[in-house]
Amino acid sequence: MKSSMKKYIEAISVLQYVLTFLFMGIFFLALLLYLMFTSFWIVTVLYSLWYFFDYGTSERGGRRSAWVRRWTVWKHYKDYFPLKMIKTAELRPDRNYIFGCHPHGIMCFGPSCNFCTDANNFLEIFPGIQPTLAILSGLFRFPVYRDYLMSLGICPVSKVSLDYLLSQMGTGNAVMIVIGGAAESLWCAPGEHVLTLRGRKGFVRLALEHGADLVPVYTFGEIDLYRQVKFKDGSWMKTLQLYFKKMVGFAPCLFLGRGIFSSESWGLTPFNKPVTTVVGKPIQVPCIPVPSCEEVDKYHQLYIEELQNLFDRHKVSCGLSESQQLIIL
């Protein structure tokens, strides 16, 4: 049994992640603009110079920090749900990999903990493999926040960035891409395992161009951490969400969690339900610098089949019923 103090520490650890995810970028942008009109204007000027000269670093492998990835706060973050990772096959360090992560959920708690921190000992479970989570490129435009993201081993999901990781960093690199992205987050609801995947083939083409093996990853419990307010198709709120997603790149979801110290109240803290990330076996992919549409379709179909098998093999042990179906759109 956990003590009350341990529960509070865990809840605060998770809440700091939520607040960082939602507000850190905007906060430092506003702060630097404010300082420009005070006697501390030199801070903004010096950081702006640093930002200008360092701008391309995020697309050249980033600048990860083992110290940040080992912060104690991530252990408490993991224990809150609790969050686990299951390995189903060995990964050879003489190969590169593209992990397709599903589902997106609201804030990707599973991938962020397993691949951006050492809380679940990824480097020990997969020796010789360096994980890099690829996220929305626009987030790297925010001052300070970009440096924090890079310290966790996160990179932009741009073509330039992914090409660099898979061609200029040697072998043993695993690039994690949340395939469904913003579109899938709008489907997120407890008990509804719906993926946006059939029209997403860019990651397969990327794998073929670099000869990187494809690895399906499914996080059970990710969709159960918040209750999302879902709007009917055709409503003005749904139209606004889709327009915002088209213009900015992510969808503004309205969601409800629990209070930080009480599960009876509402708040931004996710519900503490078990989350299990299952890393599937790699699908070997040949190196074809200019793959044809037929070749892309072939490996895309193989990927969907392996992901479906992964879901079916582990759904019962991860708390779902035998009748639960995975819907792939």
What does this structure look like?
The chain has 329 residues and is of the alpha/beta class. The protein has a single domain, classed as Glycerol-3-phosphate (1)-acyltransferase (3-Layer(aba) Sandwich), CATH 3.40.1130. It is built from twelve helices and twelve strands. The strands form three sheets. The protein has a seven-stranded mixed beta sheet with strand order 1-11-7-2-5-3-4, sandwiched between helices. Strand 9 and strand 10 form a beta hairpin. Helix 1 packs across helix 2 and helix 1 packs across helix 4. The model has no long low-confidence stretch (mean pLDDT 93).
Derived structural class: alpha/beta
Looking across the biggest beta sheet, what order are the strands in? 1-11-7-2-5-3-4
Radius of gyration: 20 Å
Helical percent range? 40-55%
Report the principal-axis shape: globular
Tally of separate helices: 12
- Kindly state the number of beta strands: 12
Query: Which series of helices and strands comes N to C?
Result: HHHHEEHHEHEHEHEHEEHEEEHE
Mean pLDDT: 93
How many distinct domains? 1
Q: Please tell me the CATH architecture by its name.
A: 3-Layer(aba) Sandwich
CA distance, first residue to last residue: 41 Å
Write a brief caption for the model.
Helices cover 41% and strands 16% of the residues. It is an alpha/beta fold and 329 residues long.
Question: Which short descriptors sum up this protein?
Answer:
329 residues; alpha/beta; Glycerol-3-phosphate (1)-acyltransferase; 7-stranded mixed sheet; 3-stranded antiparallel sheet; 12 strands; 41% helix; globular; EC 2.3.1.-
